[in-house]
Amino acid sequence: MLRSIQHITGTTIQATDGRIGEVTEAYFDDERWAIRYLIVDTGSWLAERKVLISPYSIRQPLVPGENISVHLNREQVKNSPDIDTHMPVSRRHERQYLGYYAYPDYWEGGQLWAMGGFPVLAPVGLTPPEVRLAMDEEQQVAPEDVHLRSSDNVTGYDIEASDGSIGHVKDFIFDDESWAIRYLVVDTRNWWPGGKKVLIATHWISDISWSEHTVTTKLTREEVKGSPEYDEDVVLDRGYEERLHQAYGKRGYWDFE
Question: Among residues 152, 170, 146, which one has the least CA distance to residue 41?
């Protein structure tokens, strides 16, 4: 099911033995456009500390309007490595976090996740070869190797079409099983008075400038004007996706998977 990050913001994360906190934003990687962590504010329970929750730990299926349950207990979360969410999170820090939970490195291999297209762990008792603990000296990761981006930080980035600006990033649409980000929600009204919200597929993005806060696509302004309007109150189904891709003369991501 396709959902927006804004719609899960504020959702309670429920451990096996109690509440952990609320989702405030998400970290996604800028290479494969997938949500790698939810950032959870634990409130007074952990002295206002924020923790990362990986999709590896989330129980499926997610149900709209309900808590997100995880295969973790509060003690595990309490003892997890500290991550400063105000600073860039490097692969070295990620490996420390993943090693603590014995989760595989998702960036190895050609799949979206280590075990395939979904964040599914190996059967109990089998340790996948991709699992590398943070203190494993045989594995060297450059401290500056950073690929995670904050959904909060990228919200507001300018979207540049081939012939000018078409608006700014308003939200992100992701698949709640694979956690792949499929679309950026673009608010066109600061370019097109009386305009609308539209979706731009992540595989239509040609470049991102993190220093200039811009996202570039080869689409044109006229193509954007002619695309179906996105209504956040309506369930985004495959029928809408097909109309969207047909409007741009593009193939769907489902044709490549």
Answer: 152
- 3-state DSSP assignment of residue 100: helix
Give residues with Cβ within 8 angstroms of 1, minimum separation 6: 61, 62, 175, 176, 177
With a CB cutoff of 8 Å and minimum separation 6, the contacts of 45 are: 19, 20, 21, 74
Q: Which residues of the chain have pLDDT under 50?
A: 124-139, 141
- Write down all domains in the chain, each with its CATH number in brackets: 2-150 (3.90.50.10), 155-255 (2.30.30.240)
* Long-range contacts formed by 104-108: CB under 8 A, 24+ apart: 104/128, 104/130, 104/131, 105/130, 105/131, 105/132, 106/29, 106/34, 106/36, 107/29, 107/31, 107/147
Question: Cα separation of 110 and 130, whole Å?
Answer: 13
DSSP 183: E
What is the separation of C-alpha 112 from the centre of its chain, rounded to a whole number of angstroms?
12
Distance CA 26, CA 172 (A): 10
> For residue 61, is the peptide bond before it cis, meaning its omega torsion is within 30 degrees of 0?
yes
β-partners of residue 149 are 28
Predicted structure pTM score: 0.91
Q: Which residue carries 């490595």 as its tokens?
A: 81
Q: Per-residue pLDDT tens for 82-110?
A: 888 878 788 888 999 999 999 999 987 78
Consecutive H or E run containing 154: helix 151-154
Using an 8 Å Cβ cutoff, are 112 and 178 in contact?
yes
